């Protein structure tokens, strides 16, 4: 460690901005439709370095950062991000932590870890104590709003690029899903794993029926067949679903009690967590510890340009959701993005400090959400 960072380095300022970016086509899943996504970016400054963090949330998350969290972290030590993480949670008690506030904390925590690594002059995987050199991915999109050609093109492109597993959305119009599954399987061939995500669209009995139909197309991953709040329903699907098909959920978890309850209920074969929701890097590493205690895999949800780094530090890592919307947005927003290598793995560049990202402010400016 250089003398520059041998002692406390005070966090000088924290700033947040929100950008709403249209999708490239109308999108929908089993329970929601959307045509834009909002990116909330946080920057933390200390010791001549700037740490970058972000989340996908409502623009109000930026107000939480500027109006509450900045006062918590400014003037504090940039070399101890976990201490800042703990203090932020304490100070938001009366705001209601799960949801928007947790997303704001997540973005700040990511920025503080990036800043910490930059001050040390090391990549984030090195700062976190990596146990893997990269994070395997699965291509994710296959929206229910896509026609057959769009579905086939997107999934086949990932398969051709070497990504050995892809995921599509189901459940909005069950009468079409049997056909759509056939289109997907024809597009990717027999050797690429096919995943499906219902986003909680089914009742328990409907989900049991559909699990058997999915098995006919060699589906290996059934995500949120029922609401992620229905732990008994998830356990039912896990116990009675076809062999070789894992039940997964957890992307809507915002803090440790949520994940502990899901694991204690035996609700999933593989837990999911989102670094931009589940209290950032510090939060997801603690979720990973819960999985480690059960020898259960953790799959990271979306935000690939930060999740790829965090995944290297997770012992029981399964993979990362390489989500179409976030691929587009992060490519627009940041210089230094990484892409999957031919074996379907995202490998952070350890020669670049922190996340290795720089914000493309001019490119983002047309999408900025103005305060009202």
Task: Name a few traits of the molecule.
single chain, 372 residues, alpha/beta, Enolase-like, domain 1, TIM Barrel, 2 domains, 8-stranded parallel beta barrel, 3-stranded antiparallel β-sheet, 13 helices
Question: Summary?
Answer:
The chain has helices at 60-73, 81-91, 97-120, 124-128, 148-160, 174-188, 204-215, 231-240, 256-264, 280-294, 304-311, 324-333, 361-364, and strands spanning 13-28, 33-46, 49-56, 135-140, 165-169, 193-197, 219-223, 246-249, 270-273, 298-300, 317-323, 334-335, 345-346, 358-359.
Terminal CA distance reads 44 Å
Oligomer state of the chains in this structure: single chain
Uncertain parts: 1-5
Give the SSE string.
Answer: EEEHHHHEHEHEHEHEHEHEHEHEEEH
Walk me through what this model shows.
Strand 5, helix 6 and strand 6 form a beta-alpha-beta unit. The chain is globular. Strands 4-5-6-7-8-9-10-11 form an eight-stranded parallel barrel, surrounded by eight helices. A three-stranded antiparallel sheet has the order 1-2-3. It starts with 12 loop residues before the first strand and ends in an 8-residue tail after the last helix. It contains 13 helices and 14 strands. With 372 residues, the protein is α/β, with parallel strands linked by helices. The chain has two domains: 128 residues, Enolase-like, domain 1, CATH 3.30.390.10; 230 residues, Enolase-like C-terminal domain (TIM Barrel), CATH 3.20.20. Helix 3 crosses helix 10 and helix 5 packs parallel to helix 6. 40% of the residues lie in helices and 22% in strands.
């Amino acid at each position: 460690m250089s003398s520059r960072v041998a002692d406390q380095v005070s966090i000088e300022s924290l700033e947040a901005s929100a950008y709403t970016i249209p999708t490239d086509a109308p999108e929908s899943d089993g329970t929601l439709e959307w045509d834009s996504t909002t990116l909330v970016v946080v920057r933390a400054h200390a010791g001549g370095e700037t740490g970058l963090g972000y989340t996908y949330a409502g623009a109000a998350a930026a107000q939480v950062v500027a109006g509450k969290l900045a006062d918590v972290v400014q003037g504090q030590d940039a070399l101890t991000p976990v201490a800042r993480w703990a203090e932020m949670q304490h100070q938001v008690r009366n705001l209601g932590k799960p949801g928007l506030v947790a997303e704001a904390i997540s973005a700040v925590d990511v920025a503080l870890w990036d800043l910490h690594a930059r001050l040390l002059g090391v990549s984030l995987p090195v700062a976190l104590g990596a146990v893997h050199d990269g994070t395997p991915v699965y291509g994710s999109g296959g929206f229910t709003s896509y026609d057959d050609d769009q579905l086939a093109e997107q999934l086949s492109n990932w398969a051709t690029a070497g990504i050995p597993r892809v995921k599509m959305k189901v459940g909005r119009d069950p009468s079409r899903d049997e056909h759509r599954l056939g289109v997907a399987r024809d597009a990717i061939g027999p050797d690429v794993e096919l995943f499906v995500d219902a986003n909680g669209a089914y009742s328990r009995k409907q989900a049991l029926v559909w699990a058997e139909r999915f098995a006919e197309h060699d589906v290996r991953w059934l995500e949120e067949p029922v609401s992620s709040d229905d732990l008994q329903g998830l356990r039912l699907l896990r116990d009675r679903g076809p062999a070789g098909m894992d039940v997964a959920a957890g992307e809507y978890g915002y803090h440790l009690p949520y994940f502990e309850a899901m694991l204690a209920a035996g609700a999933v074969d593989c837990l999911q967590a989102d670094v931009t929701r589940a209290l950032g890097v510090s939060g997801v590493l603690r979720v990973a510890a819960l999985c480690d205690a059960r020898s259960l895999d953790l799959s990271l949800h979306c935000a690939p340009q930060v999740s790829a780094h965090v995944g290297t530090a997770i012992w029981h890592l399964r993979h990362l959701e390489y989500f179409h919307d976030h691929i587009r947005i992060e490519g627009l927003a940041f210089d230094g993005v990484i892409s999957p290598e031919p074996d379907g793995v995202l490998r952070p560049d350890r020669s670049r400090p922190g996340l290795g990202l720089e914000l493309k402010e001019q490119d983002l400016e047309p999408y900025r959400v103005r305060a009202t």
